[in-house]
Amino acid sequence: MKRLNTNKKILVMISLMIFVVLSVQFKSPKISNPPITSQINVPDDVAVVLKKGCYDCHSNESKLSWFDKIAPMSWIVSSDIKEARSRFNLSHWNDLSPADQQIKFWEMINMAENGKMPIPSYLRFHPNAKLNSTDIKVLKRFAQTFITSKVGDTAEINKAGKEFTNYSTSNSHSKIKPVSLNGIMYSDEYKNWKVVAATTRFENGTMRIIYGNDIAVSAIEQGKFDPWPQGSIIVKVVWNMIEDKDGNVRAGSFNNTQWMVKDDHKFPDTQGWGFARFNGINLLPYGKTAAFGTACFNCHKLVKETGYVFDLPAKIQ
Amino acid sequence: MYSICQQKSSKPIQQKLTIKVMKLINILPLLSLIALACTSPDKRSIFDAGGQKPITSFLSKKLNTVSILFGNQQALETAKTGRIHQGSEVFTLVTWNQQNKEFWYPALINGRIKSIEVVKLSLSNNQINHEYSLVKGPAPANAAHMRFKVRERINFILSQKASVYP
User: Fold this and answer.
1) Do B68 and B118 sit in the same domain of this protein?
2) How far apart are the C-alpha atoms of A99 and A101, rounded to whole Å?
3) Does B141 touch chain A if contact means CB atoms closer than 8 Å?
4) Running DSSP on this structure, what letter comes out for residue A12?
5) What is the number of domains present in chain A?
6) A278 contacts in chain B (CB < 8 Å)
């Protein structure tokens, strides 16, 4: 009699579970594939890699497994796809400007190379989507075609010449103090700070000098940057390159200055880092809304182990 | 097999212990190095320009180097305005080998310092004197390994214009 009661209880439990699972299916989101407006145009070998590792989430050609369509899994999948398509969509590739397309492509390579993409939670159920070193080489080889050196670029030489003429007759302090939408104000202070590193980006034709304030410099020298101390500020000054026929490259016109300010109270959503960029010699603040920092941070997540900072002095090889 | 066992067991216990202790002593430095590597913070070094500021930066694709020309306030002002040399300028040209930047392909970052050159200007009898010193590294050479003359280096360093800052 007792055993019969236990069996009955188990049966009721199972029935209840089946009922719940079936019921949530009615609430399960439908993951659709809207029309493709502008497919990314890449060579076949590159397309194969993108289809393998990126398309399920970053395109309108998501190929779902049967279990992806069953709630509660479908909720997670749906949310991931929505987020991924909002970041970039390989089926709406021309929504991005050619320059932004290249930026995204480099980001893809680095996310894949550093094991951040495809996201590990997705790979757990879709192990075939993992990009191996050969796949990444294919992406890199293709991306190398973006890099073009403009030897003796007359337009840039003229622009840099004009900027220098104005600069050489001005005083050394900026007359304007623009403020980024998140409250970070440009200041000339960094010109008195130590130089932390010099970086080169042939892929976008820029060269940079990176400065750190005393707090940041001390954190770097002591290896205490995880997390970075409050008040750390890192400023990157970016110039466009001018290259001669012998491969000598010098700083040309001023491009922008980029700021990272560590303030846990002001920027709690981005691990305490506030981001700002001031473009061109007139230091036009970047960003349409104060939330632009989230986009910066999404990329900086790649360097969690260095406290979300890319431009640390190198480990000497 | 039998003979080996016989040989092993024939060693006095004290001798065996001594060998074990010796082995341990031999690997102790290695063990402590490993322990240190596991616990020590990830310290990175920053070049100390001694209060001098960047005047400009440039790089050589052929040599895979990046350089920053630092200078004192007078040097900075001269490189910026193109005024005649005052005789109080100090320029420090630091050249690093470039290396791949961790976490971001295909960016490069300054790695090991290759050379440090200093040019000090002084004024005597209305004449500007140039003092060149190679503080660190081999004598700078071009991509064809031809060494520059000191006069060429001085002229090169003094001919640099300041990078434009906002």
Assistant:
1) yes
2) 5
3) no
4) H
5) 3
6) 166
